[in-house]
């Protein structure tokens, strides 16, 4: 049996289904719709619906993803180990990374029959580069990639969100170095870039390394800096009566100051007067884990999804502010796309025709030039031929004249000896 979700409900079906808190809110919101109230003649059994949901959720298990942003060696791994009272894999980062990269690690945890798939994402090399202008980018990209993966799964024809490993970041613990001065620009820039994408909780790390009074001043200073720079940090929800008081008081006392030295076990941490470790664990895990998951889905993912779909041209209303269904948007987009395609095809065809015409004209021009050249050469050749012919004739005439002279000369030379002979005889 599935709960009926009315059109227009903000919360996704799968989220309501897997979350008892959401179900209660959904039931509350249903009350505002005018319906006839009927009393039942006897016990029907649907009052067990919340129990059914809880049992289903427990069987299914939960997932929670934490992003730890902070400089190398600031105490990220130590806090995670202390928070979950276990020893996660720890690989110390070197201070000589060329850039920042994110390292996710997933663990299956079990507590009183409740399975938690926990992913801890570490920012390796954060704050170690000389130029830190782009240090926030791999973090933003990582968060967006997890949103994108979820969106792609949602958009599939055959979705399997039920057993999908949701890797969207539910909380970003931002580790601030206990300098005692003010926030570093890297911290401000990074938090500003992340605040619309993830729930941020600022943490003053290694709080034991500065005095209590300095820590107090530092905390006030950084919180006022965050406010004046418009950085939105996560606010614990105060709409649920059972936790509103504790959450309201925690909202006032952010950021958490954390001391997690190895020799202090949790019991000792509870007595540490200037360590908020116990408060952090209470707020993060025991009271607000579900709200963090819900905020991630209903606020941050919703924003990413909306921007992405708008970027792709999807809208809820047409230019006359009339509702526009996904089907209509798709049809409109398809028409627009086909129109575009046709226009481009026509343009290309026209371009091709023009090109052919141009080439044809060029070829004709070349042909004409060649023809002219041929005619010119032909004329030159005929001139040459004529000249040669004339020369030949001249030469022939010269040769004839010569021959005639030769014959005359020969005749003359033959007659000369006869005359000499006659003269001799005489
Ligand atoms: N004084 C003090 N030391 C701490 C605290 N938390 C952690 N440390 C010490 O700081 C050192 C680094 O701690 P890690 O937890 O490995 O720091 P990390 O941020 O995970 O370091 P990388 O993963 O290498 O970036 C260890 O020697 C810890 O014992 C703290 O609250 N106070
Ligand atoms: Mg570490």
Task: Show the helix and strand layout.
Layout: H1 13-17, H2 20-30, H3 49-60, E1 62-69, H4 76-83, E2 101-111, E3 114-124, H5 137-155, E4 171-176, H6 185-194, E5 200-204, H7 212-228, H8 241-252, E6 256-257, H9 266-271, H10 277-287, H11 289-311, H12 326-425
Parallel strand pairs: 1-3, 1-4, 4-5, 5-6
Antiparallel strand pairs: 2-3
Bound molecules: guanosine-5'-triphosphate and magnesium ion.
Quick summary:
Helix content is 55%, strand content 10%.
Describe the structure.
This is Septin. One of its GO terms (molecular function) is GTP binding. Keywords: Coiled coil, Cytoplasm, Cytoskeleton, GTP-binding, Nucleotide-binding. Helix 6 links the parallel strand 4 and strand 5. The N and C termini lie far apart (167 Å). The protein has 426 residues and is α/β, with parallel strands linked by helices. It contains twelve helices and six strands. Helix 10 packs across helix 11. The structure holds guanosine-5'-triphosphate and magnesium ion (MG). Magnesium ion binds next to helix 4.
Give me some keywords for this one.
10% strand; 426 residues; binds magnesium ion; 6 strands; elongated; 55% helix; six-stranded mixed β-sheet; alpha/beta; binds guanosine-5'-triphosphate; 12 helices; disordered N terminus
Residue runs with pLDDT of under 50 for 5 or more positions = 1-18
Question: Which compounds are bound in this model?
Answer: guanosine-5'-triphosphate, magnesium ion
Count every beta strand, where a strand is a DSSP E run of 2 or more residues: 6
The ordered H/E elements are HHHEHEEHEHEHHEHHHH
Structural class: alpha/beta
Tell me, what's the shape?
Answer: elongated
The portion of residues assigned to helices is 40-55%
Summarize model confidence as the mean pLDDT. Answer: 83
Give the N-terminus to C-terminus distance in angstroms. 167 Å
Largest sheet: 6 strands, mixed
Our estimate of the beta-strand percent is 5-15%
Strand order of the largest sheet: 2-3-1-4-5-6
Please compute the radius of gyration using only Cα atoms. 47 Å
Helical run tally = 12
Region (Disordered): 399-426
Family: Belongs to the TRAFAC class TrmE-Era-EngA-EngB-Septin-like GTPase superfamily. Septin GTPase family.
GO molecular function, one term: GTP binding
Domain Septin-type G: 60-311
């Amino acid at each position: 049996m599935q709960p009926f979700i009315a059109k227009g409900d903000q919360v996704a079906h799968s989220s309501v289904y897997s979350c008892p808190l959401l179900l209660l809110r959904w039931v509350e919101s249903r009350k505002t719709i005018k319906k006839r109230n009927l009393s039942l003649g006897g016990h029907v059994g649907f009052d067990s619906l919340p129990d059914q949901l809880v049992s289903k959720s427990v069987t299914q298990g939960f997932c929670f993803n934490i992003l730890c942003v902070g400089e190398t060696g600031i105490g990220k791994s130590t806090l995670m180990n202390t928070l979950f009272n276990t020893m996660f894999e720890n690989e110390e980062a070197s201070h000589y990374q060329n850039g920042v990269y994110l390292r996710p690690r997933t663990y299956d945890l079990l507590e009183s029959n409740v399975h938690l798939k926990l992913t801890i994402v570490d920012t390796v090399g954060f704050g170690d580069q000389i130029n830190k202008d782009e240090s926030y980018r791999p973090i933003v990209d990582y968060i967006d990639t997890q949103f994108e993966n979820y969106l792609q799964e949602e958009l599939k024809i055959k979705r399997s969100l039920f057993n999908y490993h949701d890797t969207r970041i539910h909380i970003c613990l931002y580790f601030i170095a206990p300098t005692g001065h003010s926030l570093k620009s890297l911290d401000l820039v990074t938090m500003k870039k992340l605040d619309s994408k993830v729930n941020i909780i600022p943490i003053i790390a290694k709080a034991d390394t500065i005095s209590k009074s300095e820590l107090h001043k530092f905390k006030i200073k950084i919180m006022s800096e965050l406010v004046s720079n418009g950085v939105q940090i996560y606010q614990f929800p105060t709409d649920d009566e059972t936790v509103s008081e504790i959450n309201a008081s925690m909202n006032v006392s952010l950021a958490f100051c954390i001391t997690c030295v190895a020799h202090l076990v949790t019991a000792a941490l509870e007595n540490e007067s200037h360590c908020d470790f116990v408060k952090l664990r209470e707020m993060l895990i025991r009271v607000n884990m579900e709200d963090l998951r819900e905020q991630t889905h209903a606020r941050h993912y919703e924003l990413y999804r909306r921007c992405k779909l708008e970027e792709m041209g999807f809208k809820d209303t047409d230019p006359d502010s009339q509702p526009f269904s996904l089907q209509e948007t798709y049809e409109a987009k398809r028409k627009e796309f086909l129109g575009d395609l046709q226009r481009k095809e026509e343009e290309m065809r026209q371009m091709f025709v023009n090109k052919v015409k141009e080439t044809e004209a060029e070829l004709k021009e070349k042909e004409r030039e060649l023809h002219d050249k041929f005619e010119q050469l032909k004329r030159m050749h005929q001139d040459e031929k004529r000249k040669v012919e004339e020369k030949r004739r001249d030469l022939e005439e010269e040769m004839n004249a010569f021959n005639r002279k030769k014959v005359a000369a020969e005749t003359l030379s033959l007659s000369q000896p006869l005359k000499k002979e006659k003269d001799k005889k005489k």
